[in-house]
Amino acid sequence: MQSVSVIIEPAQYLASWREKNGTVFLPVLSETRVGEEVAVRVGILGHAIRATLSGRVALVRRDGGPSLPPGIDLQLERNSLAAATFLAAAARGEPVPYRERAPRWVAELPLSMERGGAVLEVTTLNVSEGGCAVRWPGQLPLVGDEIGIRLKDGLFSRMLRAVVCWNQPGSDRDRSVGLKILPDGRATRAWQKIVERAAREGARPA
Which of 23, 167, 205, 206 is least surrounded by Cβ atoms within 10 Å, i.e. has the fewest? Predict the structure, then answer.
């Protein structure tokens, strides 16, 4: 997954954001191909606000000019729709609450999860101190469901609790779940070590 940053003028962002279709035109990554997964950290010129928009490239414009620059149409993942709407509100000059989130890293890490007595082997898409997104096998859990994450912590095994904050249906490749970590002492510290190791080993910012 490619990851870049861009600052966009408010009027340009509002003209590019198509809320009904869940797509936005971004003047970056014109060398990519349709179908590629990307993550773009978007800022609105004149505002401190930043948000990461993730999804698949739906269209590529390789050539352009000042009024129609090169770039991509990004079909947003479900969990990026709120962020795109948030950016639009800021671009319109509306007052919006904003707090910079903890760093998130693109990392494919194997995890063992427990749900309803069953053990599932999943792979993360990205990780942060507050949670992770994972590619999910089989039937999706519901928002609000609690999931157990079994972590190795030296000689010990820790059970970390997490809650489903969003889910995204689709094919085996697209089906995914967002998990928020519930604070739990040593298990939480074990998770933080995993995130720190991913950052040290060169994971890209999401």
Answer: 205
Q: 117-156, pLDDT tens digit by residue?
A: 899 999 999 999 889 999 998 889 988 899 999 987 666 7
User: What sign for the dihedral angle of Cα 65, 71, 76, 80?
Assistant: negative
DSSP 30-52: TTS-TT-EEEEEEEETTS--EEE
Whether 52 contacts 206, CB under 8 Å = yes
Structural domains of the chain, ranges and CATH numbers in brackets: 2-91 (2.40.10.220), 104-205 (2.40.10.220)
Q: Quick one: DSSP state of residue 66?
A: S
